């Protein structure tokens, strides 16, 4: 453990100069890959993440398909060069768990009953990791689904909240994630008022979680606006052409 | 890749009954919505393991065993022992468990139990150092699911903590550059008694400690682990569906109350009075 690491500067701001409830700079672009039906790219702090969607397409082998809805396949993967130490490209236990958690979150958004017997593949590739990759990955994956024209109940934006040196903070960076006391990734759909992804590790009291939740809702609403803007930018071009 | 799971179909009649009962605030097995199943704990079930416990939660059976070894510490924590949790969904426990490499369900279960124990600091890993930077104790908790009737998470956390409480570690002496195992043992000290509470959601209704049919019929489950001081050390939503922030806050409140009750029952044999 790093004994002397301080997560706050003397002026009370965080190591990267942010206020407690401030998001890192976010850049989102929709429609960035040529082969995928839908794709999106997100930069959040030093995170650089690509998401791509293929499908709906025939589910093969047939026994994996469901008669009443489509199935989702999701892979969250970190590139070997995305972390300070080279990461083995084989999927780790963490990546396997996150693939499942992310699939669950997306499953609650996709109108799966519209495409029985088919499969939708979702790939999330972390090119550079800087804390909060599952959240940024989900924000991008939802946009890739929308870009592919797949009917969704709504968009969901994700953001981690947590605690460092006793203070509740928003959008943890790598340092805060490693040395902070708690990390709670949340994905939230503002139109249906629903949490689609929820995890927490570290230690927080009920009151701290309540405070963190309300900060997460505000933060995800901000990211949701950026998602909408990114989609508008993507599709305003085609409208001009028509 | 994570693929949409194929849940076994539960019959329409069973599902209808389940929802009719829920609407009346009851459950098919006669429990109330926030009532836990009967819980029994048998300590020291496996003599060859340094610590073990068999937990029966209704028809769910989980055996946890702790094996102790000596290992090289991780580079970033040279003075800390190593804790590794592994879960086996043994095929004899259920027709839905298949032999083969660990499924995502078993990985996610093991990782949740790991977080519950690690984050709550149930064991002080820095007390498990033999020679700094060279030799530390390694504790492997192996969870064996022997019979599957839902709520593996809560049963596994209870089994792990009970197994750890019975764990005896061999002492080592330093002889020159080497360490030598002595014929003396000391008891692993527990610093906390975390319990996990799992809820299954049906629309805006929820029940605690779902049995398998309730898990299959539910939209999703939420698990949260509460420490002895009522703070939380792990939370996870499993499955699709949306959890309303209102319900999430309700769960926090309920978990503190239910957690106290469950902790009393689950650790009655090991908590010092």
Condensed summary:
The complex is a heterodimer of chains A (242) and B (273). With 242 residues, chain A is α+β, with helices and mostly antiparallel strands. Chain A has helices at residues 93-107, 133-147, 174-179, 206-241; strands at residues 26-30, 38-44, 47-58, 71-78, 118-128, 157-164, 167-170, 182-189, 194-204.
Strand and helix map with partners:
The complex is a heterodimer of chains A (242) and B (273).
Chain A: E1 26-30, E2 38-44, E3 47-58, E4 71-78, H1 93-107, E5 118-128, H2 133-147, E6 157-164, E7 167-170, H3 174-179, E8 182-189, E9 194-204, H4 206-241
Helix pairs in contact in A: 1-2, 2-4
Chain B: E1 2-3, H1 12-23, E2 39-43, E3 51-57, E4 60-71, E5 82-89, H2 104-119, E6 129-131, E7 135-147, H3 152-165, E8 168-175, E9 178-187, E10 195-202, E11 205-208, H4 212-217, E12 220-226, E13 232-238, H5 245-266
Termini separation of chain A comes to 59 Å
User: What class would the helix/strand composition of chain B place it in?
Assistant: alpha+beta
The CATH architecture name of chain A reads 2-Layer Sandwich
Biggest β-sheet description of chain B: 6 strands, mixed
Name of the CATH first level of chain B: Alpha Beta
Instruction: Characterize the overall form of chain A.
Output: globular
Helices and strands of chain A, in order, run as EEEEHEHEEHEEH
- Looking at the structure, the CATH topology of chain A is Ribosomal Protein S5, domain 2
The total count of helices of chain A amounts to 4
Strand composition percent of chain A: 25-35%
Q: Give the overall shape of chain B.
A: elongated
Largest sheet of chain A: 5 strands, mixed
Q: In which range does the helix fraction of chain B lie?
A: 25-40%
Looking at CATH, the homologous superfamily of chain B is GHMP Kinase, N-terminal domain
Listing every helix as H and every strand as E from the N terminus to the C terminus, the arrangement of chain B reads: EHEEEEHEEHEEEEHEEH
Tally the beta strands of chain B.
Answer: 13
Helix content of chain A: 25-40%
CATH topology of chain B: Ribosomal Protein S5, domain 2
């Amino acid at each position: 453990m790093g004994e002397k690491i301080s997560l706050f500067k003397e002026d009370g701001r965080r190591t990267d100069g942010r206020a407690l409830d401030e998001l890192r700079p976010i850049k989102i672009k929709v429609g960035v890959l040529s082969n995928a039906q839908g794709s999106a790219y997100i930069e959040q702090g030093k995170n650089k993440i690509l998401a791509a969607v293929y499908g709906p397409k025939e589910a093969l082998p047939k026994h994996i398909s469901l008669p009443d809805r489509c199935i989702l396949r999701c892979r969250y993967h970190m590139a070997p060069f995305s972390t300070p130490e080279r990461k083995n490209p084989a999927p780790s236990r963490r990546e396997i768990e996150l693939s499942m958690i992310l699939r669950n979150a997306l499953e609650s958004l996709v109108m799966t009953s519209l495409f029985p017997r088919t499969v939708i593949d979702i790939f999330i590739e972390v090119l550079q990791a800087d804390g909060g990759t599952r959240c940024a990955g989900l924000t991008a994956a939802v946009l890739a689904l929308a870009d592919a024209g797949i009917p969704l109940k709504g968009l969901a934006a994700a953001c981690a909240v947590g605690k460092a040196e006793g203070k509740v903070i928003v959008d943890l960076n790598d340092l805060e994630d490693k040395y902070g006391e708690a990390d709670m990734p949340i994905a939230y759909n503002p139109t249906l008022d629903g949490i689609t992804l929820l995890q927490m590790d570290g230690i927080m009291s009920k009151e701290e979680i309540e405070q963190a939740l309300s900060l997460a809702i505000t933060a995800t609403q901000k990211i949701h606006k950026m998602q909408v803007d990114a989609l508008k930018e993507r599709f305003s071009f085609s409208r001009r052409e028509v | 890749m994570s693929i949409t799971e194929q849940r076994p179909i539960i019959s329409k009649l069973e599902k209808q009954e389940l929802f009719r009962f829920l609407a009346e605030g009851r459950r098919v097995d006669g429990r109330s919505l926030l009532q836990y199943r009967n819980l029994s704990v048998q300590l020291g079930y496996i003599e060859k393991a340094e610590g073990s416990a068999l937990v029966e939660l209704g028809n769910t059976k989980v055996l946890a065993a702790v094996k102790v070894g000596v290992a090289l510490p991780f580079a970033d924590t040279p003075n800390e022992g190593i804790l590794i949790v592994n879960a086996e969904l043994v095929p004899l426990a259920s027709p839905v468990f298949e032999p083969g490499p660990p499924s995502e369900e078993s990985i996610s279960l093991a990782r949740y139990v790991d977080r519950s124990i690690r984050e709550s600091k149930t064991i002080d890993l820095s007390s498990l150092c033999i020679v700094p930077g060279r030799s530390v104790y390694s504790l492997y908790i192996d969870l064996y699911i022997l019979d599957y009737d839902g709520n593996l998470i809560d049963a596994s956390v209870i089994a792990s903590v009970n197994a750890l409480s019975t764990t005896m570690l061999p002492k080592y002496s330093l002889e020159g550059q080497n360490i030598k195992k002595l014929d003396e043992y000391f008891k692993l000290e527990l610093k906390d008694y975390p319990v996990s509470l799992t809820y299954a959601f049906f629309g805006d209704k929820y029940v605690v400690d779902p049995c398998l049919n309730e898990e299959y019929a539910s939209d999703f489950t939420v698990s949260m682990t509460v420490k002895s001081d009522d703070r939380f050390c792990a939370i996870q939503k499993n499955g699709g569906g949306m959890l309303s922030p209102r319900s999430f806050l309700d769960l926090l409140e309920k978990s503190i109350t239910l957690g106290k009750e469950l902790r009393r029952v689950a650790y009655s044999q090991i908590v010092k009075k």
